[in-house]
Amino acid sequence: MRPHIPGRDAEFTPAGAADGDRAAPTRGKLLTWPVFAWGLWDWGSAAFNAVITTFVFSVYLTSSAFGDPAANESALSVGLALAGACIALLAPVTGQRADRAGSTVFWLGVYTAIVVAVSAALYFVLPEPGYLWLGITLLGIGNVFFELASVNYNGLLSRLATKDRVGAVSGLGWGMGYLGGIVLLLILYVGFINPEVGWFGVTDENRMDIRVSMLVSAGWFGLCAIPVLVTQSGKHAWRRWAAIEAAAGGDYRALAGLESEPVDPVEAPARIMRHEPLAASYKHLWRTLVGLYRTHPEVLWFLLAAAVFRDGLAGVFTYGGIIAQNTFGFTSGEVIVFAVAANVVAGVATIAAGRLDDLLGPRRVILGALTVLVVAGLLVFVLHTAGARVFWILGLVLSGCVGPAQSAARSYLARLAPQGREGEIFGLYATTGRAVSFMAPMMYGASIWVGTHMVGAGAGYWGILGIVTVLAGGLLLMLRVQDPAGRIIVGE
């Protein structure tokens, strides 16, 4: 049955408001086994986010072993920008196709498995200039499939908690990701990177310590992804989703402008591999965008604002370890120690901010975090000669703000996404982010280029100005956005 395509009478339903026979939502539990299992994916994903993308492999790849560090940083920026373009093209239609086939969990498993395989393949990147582009290519492929997996993963959020708990659950997941990063980084630091002879006789010859760490990271992520795949599959999962929907006051989450009803849970297994032309998926996507533009332009404004500031947030973590090493003189071991401290701060701050999200609204959390990030980033640039202690202080401040902003952005959209359309909406979320994902790498590289022409060699610290510019742009756009009043529904 095709849904009614609404006109401009579509509106937001106030959170908790009754509608006819719908009962007001009851307050849901926060910590349940399905929520914890879901959070374990975030815990395990730190293997890719913290170890590979931020603090270990990217630092290794931009070191002097692969050539001039500044040139390596520029090459890495190009590779990540190309990966972002691929994500922008693929994320919304892959999320939509998973929704329409009822196969969100299936594709979460497939994409996660690919990320695990790519992570393990990083072992073969030797510390020689000829291996630079192999490392960049693998890192780019990993980023593409990690983002596609995240689309399906984020789409499960509204199936885990009622809307009065979405902020806390989202914050818990992000916080578990940071804490998982701490544990894994400590294991790698103590077991392989710091000692002259590590576990299993691993040394730093040919940077075997870093390369073996990639194998451990791959196994870590793979194991931690299993619980969510198990708990969100089968009839028991569908019953839990129905119970959460009933607790929220019934099925009131239809979305303006979408082309077809979500697949019936009973039919889902038979339709996982249903073939649909890619062109048809883009056609459905276009109609969704038109429907949102006509009835809910404020949602599009949020997607634009979030796209910009999330790219800046990604830039903070992508280039943080590089700036620590190349500008403030951190050794590889000191980068790991800093990463551990940063993840402690980020994990605690994100879990705490999840509670504030539910109390104050995600918009206030995002605006506060972005403001602090812009100020702290400017101070890193101004005080770049002040020594490692300054970076410790400002770096921890930056770390404490990135997670809350990311978590609040996710909960903002989860509060709006209609049932059966989470993958498509979070696919748009990923696409709008990746459509501008060239901004942070481009601005980072461009700022270094400008700095090199102004001050000569050693201008890597200028890159922070590019990241601050992107964050400030997202902050200005977010000022136009208001907190969600409730789910998007079709007006009667």
Description of the structure:
Helices cover about 70% and strands about 0% of the residues. The chain is an all-alpha fold and about 500 residues long. Mean pLDDT is about 75; it is low at about 1-25 and about 250-275.
| pLDDT averaged over residues | 77
Terminal-residue CA separation = 18 Å
Instruction: Report the portion of residues in β strands.
Output: under 5%
Model regions low in confidence, pLDDT < 50 over at least 5 residues = 1-27, 248-273
- The number of helical segments is 17
Strand order of the largest sheet: 1-2
Structural class, by secondary structure, is mainly alpha
Order of helices and strands: EHHHHHHHHHHHHHHHHHE
Shape call: globular
- Give me the Rg, rounded: 22 Å
Main pleated sheet: 2 strands, antiparallel
**Into which percent range does the helicity of residues fall?**
over 70%
Kindly state the number of beta strands: 2
Task: Give a topology summary.
Layout: E1 11-12, H1 33-55, H2 57-61, H3 69-101, H4 104-121, H5 132-155, H6 166-193, H7 208-231, H8 235-247, H9 268-271, H10 278-295, H11 297-326, H12 332-360, H13 362-382, H14 388-416, H15 422-435, H16 439-455, H17 463-478, E2 488-489
Antiparallel strand pairs: 1-2
Helix pairs in contact: 1-5, 1-6, 1-7, 1-11, 3-5, 3-10, 3-15, 3-16, 4-5, 4-7, 5-15, 6-7, 6-12, 6-14, 10-11, 11-14, 11-15, 11-16, 11-17, 12-13, 12-14, 13-14, 13-17, 16-17
